[in-house]
Amino acid sequence: MSEPNPAARLAEPPVREPDADPGVPARDRRGHRADLLAVAAAVVLVAAATAVGLYYNRPHSGVVIFVFAPPLFADWLPHVGPGSVFAVLVALAVVLHGPVLAARLPWRRALAAGYLASLAWIFSLAMVDGWSRGFAGHLTIPQEYLHEVPGITDIPRMVREFSSRILDFQPDSWTTHVSGHPPGATLVFVWLDRLGLHGGAWAATAVVLAGSLVAVAVPATVALLGRAEAARAVLPFAVLTPGAVWIGVSADGLFAGVTATGLALLALSAKGFTQGRRFAVPAGLAAGVLLGFGIFLSYGLVLLGLLAATVAVLGRQWRAAALAITAALAVVGLFAWAGFWWLDGYHLVVERYYQGVALVRPYSYWVWADLAAVTVALGPAVVAALRRGLAETFLPPRRAVLADPVLLLGVAALLTIVFADVSGLSKAETERIWLPFGVWLLPMTALLPRPGRRWWLAAQAATALVVNHLLLTGW
Fold first, then answer.
1. Which of 80, 378, 423, 473 lies at a C-alpha separation of 20 to 30 Å from 245?
2. What domain of life does the UniProt record list for this protein's source (predicted)?
3. Per the structure, how many domains does the chain have?
4. Contact 417, 373 (CB under 8 A)
5. d(CA 18, CA 368)
6. How far is Cα 212 from Cα 201, in angstroms, rounded to an integer?
7. Which alpha helices (H) appear in 241-362, and where do they start and end?
């Protein structure tokens, strides 16, 4: 028999019984109470954002937030759909069996099962809104990328002239989402169309297939960086994230999957160099290509540089980082050679941003309501885990943060979200826009005590189901 591919085995954690302690310090009852208090504070934050937002939506309030189910960009519409029963069944299966399977299965099989479960979860949630409204037609509305695809007949010219069409109030201005992102996002859907995969169903399928990679990339990165047992604990939470509501099928789900895979490949390259494996070089180059292309999917993804630096520090291999940086700069150079300079596009998109509704949406509201929106997408388990992570990081006795990917990745993700929030360049819709950042708080769920993990998983699933059945989400 042939030897299994060593690259696939690098991050393979040891098989543990489901009642094994994943290396997280034991917590007393005060810790559980503190977790519940943190979740209660998050609920108060969301409730306050809802109450203030609904007040602003009253006639003659004098404030325009342009969100009808604050703090989420959605409409109030209690409903059920073809995916409702299936979504509940998937949630029950993951809650009841996910932790056991993640603990007992060989690592590659566990990751494969996680990916398939994530696909099922995301697709079933999308189908709560029905095939057309929730899936096939979601990316075809006039503000979306597919609206522009038929008119793009010359790709080099499209890239070369992209910046000239960003500003609004021109006869040939790009539609909302195309103008608000670099050309890479639009190119993905143009390439699908050129491959013969026309229309909204194929575009939505691509988004879901890419977005589901989060469930593999995040726990794999944790394992590759030395916390193999914690990675098994994280896997079910990466599947049942409430953010799945927006991964299916906003393009931000695709962005999250692509960039998360890039960070996982960076960790794989570092591990490969440590063990002298031949795949270390191609993995590092692939990481750079994906992360470099990521900043041409969305301008805000340049903030993932902090998380990339975090992975590089934890991986302790400068050669992997150097390869990734070289490949990322090559992507930037390729776009510049084609006629699009990222900084020009960024300055123009900021101007376009304030040509629209951002001009009237108040910063004083959204600077904290944005945090409420992303809290819904993260779910109560991540809130409790973040509380534990911050306590371990900043309160005595402090753990060695620089040696622990569970803590350091979470802290880096939190700082990224805070920076994005303070910038004021995302007023509303952060439940989807910040998905590529928020998924890197998932490693902290390994800090949750083992006996209560199924309850936290159930809370994650319930959050997604309630949001998807009470609201019709936008985009």
1. 423
2. Bacteria
3. 1
4. no
5. 39
6. 16
7. 244-247, 251-275, 280-294, 305-315, 318-338, 342-353
| Helix, strand, coil share (%) of the chain residues, nearest 5 | 70, 0, 30
**pLDDT by residue, tens only, the chain of 475 residues:** 444 454 444 455 555 444 434 444 544 578 899 999 999 999 999 999 999 999 999 998 889 999 999 999 999 999 999 999 999 999 999 999 999 999 999 999 999 999 999 999 999 999 999 999 999 999 999 999 999 999 999 999 999 999 999 999 999 999 999 999 999 999 999 999 999 999 999 999 999 999 999 999 999 999 999 999 999 999 999 999 999 999 999 999 999 999 999 999 999 999 999 999 999 999 999 999 999 999 999 999 999 999 999 999 999 999 999 999 999 999 999 999 999 999 999 999 999 999 988 888 999 999 999 999 999 999 999 999 999 999 998 887 777 677 899 999 999 999 999 999 999 999 999 999 999 999 999 999 999 999 999 999 999 999 999 999 999 998 7
Tokens 């099989």 belong to residue = 109
- Which two tokens mark 225? 């960086």
207: tokens are 């988004």
What are the structure tokens assigned to 356, written together?
């629209």
Single-letter amino acid code for the residue at 193: D
Q: Which residues have a Cβ under 8 Å from the Cβ of 207 and sit 6 or more positions away?
A: 139, 247, 248, 249, 250, 251, 253, 254
What are the C-alpha distances in Å from 326 to residues 54, 289, 330, 343, 389? Answer: 49, 9, 6, 19, 33
Q: Which two tokens stand for residue 384?
A: 């409790």
d(CA 371, CA 417): 9
**Inter-residue contact 382 to 473 (CB < 8 Å):** no
10-57 per-position pLDDT tens digit: 455 555 444 434 444 544 578 899 999 999 999 999 999 999 999 999
In sequence order, the β-bridge partners of residue 472 are 75
What residues contact 131, with CB distance under 8 A and at least 6 apart? 82
> Distance of CA 123 to CAs 78, 132, 234, 326, 434, Å?
19, 13, 21, 36, 20
Residue 69 DSSP code = B
The answer to the question of residue 17 being in a domain is no
Q: Which residue, chain included where needed, has tokens 């929106």?
A: 373
Is there a domain that residue 441 lies in? yes
Question: Which residues partner with 74 through β-bridges?
Answer: 473
Tally of CA atoms within 13 A in the half-sphere of 288 that contains its CB: 22
**Residue 294 falls inside a structural domain:** yes
Residue-range definition of the domain harbouring residue 313: 74-473
Burial class from Cβ neighbours inside 10 Å (0-12, 13-18, 19+) for residue 87 reads buried
- Of 360, 370, 426, 432, which is closest to residue 45 (Cα–Cα)? 370
Q: How many residues does the chain have?
A: 475
